[in-house]
Design brief:
mainly alpha; Cytochrome Bc1 Complex, Chain D, domain 2; elongated
Length: 182
């Protein structure tokens, strides 16, 4: 009799649960996981406790970020970068070694091991006209500008490389160019 009552209770309980609407949640164990409360990062609130869209202070850099690159992708922008842009990184072995590593990953296949434009994609005739670094009037700024915006067949590498990695590649390209000019 005891088992019979238990079976009846389980059948009734199961039928009640199964009759609910299956498309909506019936129980929220941790409601904050389902409906998050939005917070403003700087804690600013407007009238009525509504968040305010505050803008960062001009000239500031977000934590972990890099300065904005405001030089346009034009011939004039290229010339401006070429004459005014300078690397903020120290010229040391650590930066040069990482620049070489990044160059090997992103640049070697086209520009070649020595920067002579004889990478695999050039020698296999996939791309023609890849420049030799010694034939170009390159500066830190012009190399960085091309990494950001690309030039001719070369596309932008700004999404693949961090701010620091770009400048490290610039340092390594300058070393390759110096070696080619000897």
């Amino acid at each position: 009799m005891k088992n019979f009552k238990l079976i009846i209770a389980l059948v009734v309980f199961t039928s009640i649960i199964s009759c609910n609407d299956k498309k909506t949640r019936q129980l929220q164990y941790m409601p904050d996981m389902y409906e998050s409360i939005p917070y403003n990062a700087d804690g600013a609130e407007g009238l009525g406790g509504e968040p305010v869209n505050s803008k960062p202070v001009a000239g500031t850099i977000p934590r972990g970020g890099a300065p904005a690159y405001d030089i346009p992708d034009t011939i004039e922008g290229y010339e401006l970068a070429k004459t005014t842009l300078k690397s903020p990184l120290a010229k040391d072995e650590k930066n040069l070694d990482n620049g070489k590593e990044m160059y090997t990953i992103y640049c070697l296949s086209c520009h070649g091991k020595n920067g002579d434009g004889q990478g695999y994609l050039a020698t296999s005739e996939k791309f023609a006209g890849i420049p030799n670094y010694k034939d170009r009037d390159l500066t830190e700024g012009s190399i960085y500008h091309v990494l950001i915006h690309g030039k001719n067949l070369m596309g932008s590498h700004s999404s693949q490389l961090t701010y620091k990695e770009r400048w490290q590649i610039v340092q390594y390209v300058e070393v390759l160019r110096t070696d080619l000019l000897k």
